[in-house]
Amino acid sequence: MLTFGVDIGGSGIKGAPVDLEKGTLSQQRFKVRTPHPATVAGVTDGVKQIVDHFDWSGPVGLTFPGVVTVGSTIRSASNVDQDWIDMDARALFSERLGGHPVTVVNDADAAGLAELRFGAAMGRRGTVILLTFGTGIGSALFNDGVLVPNVELGHLELWGQDAERRASSKAKEEGGLAWKEWAGRVKEYLAHVERLFSPELIVIGGGISRESEKFLPLLDGVRTEIVPAQLHNDAGIVGAAMCAARQAAA
């Protein structure tokens, strides 16, 4: 069973058809740069480029880097243009894609669903948290496999500001931080998350998870089990497709 997924991020928009039996992309993903500023028109045009690239016809699942209500209204837009707030994302994208059925979900929630079904958190019970380190820090919180949506843990206050301002992979890149220095910040952030939620497992996702061997050994002192995501940066695409298929079957 194939369904299409698109992952909208702060630096790139990427998508592909997804084999939902295997949890893998059925074709190599196609990516365009997220426009800056990430306006409504610019991002929707980018999504259309990706869908048109595959000549896709059918349901499309989309992730969004912010809070998305059950009714698909955007409630926050930290790393995209503020004009997104209060937009009906489902209606907006469906119109731009020529009437395709569209499902919209928070980006980290989608990645978490994919890792829970096919990846590093598969079969895990108790409290599981996925954290994606990229332009910001996305988060997905699960209890016994049930998602608590839109938990924006990247905006926890630490060091007098949103934690993602100092501990995201963007902060590492822009600050020219060595792995050890950046890992020190991540470790302090994870200890804060641990104190608040007492998770059984923390999954580190986002593109930086491909280099987990460079920083996971430096996160000593955090008691919670920490593992890298298995789907890496494809998790959002897979999770978006999962949500689209679920909506189509409802």
What report would you give on this structure?
The chain is an alpha/beta fold. It has two domains: 124 residues, ATPase, nucleotide binding domain (Nucleotidyltransferase, domain 5); 107 residues, ATPase, nucleotide binding domain (Nucleotidyltransferase, domain 5, 2-Layer Sandwich), CATH 3.30.420. 32% of the residues lie in helices and 24% in strands. It is built from seven helices and 13 strands. The strands form three sheets. Strands 1, 2, 3, 4, 5 and 6 form a six-stranded mixed β-sheet that branches. A five-stranded mixed β-sheet has the order 9-8-7-12-13, covered by helices on one side. The longest helix is centred in the C-terminal third of the chain and has 19 residues. It is globular and about 50 Å long. 46% of the residues are buried.
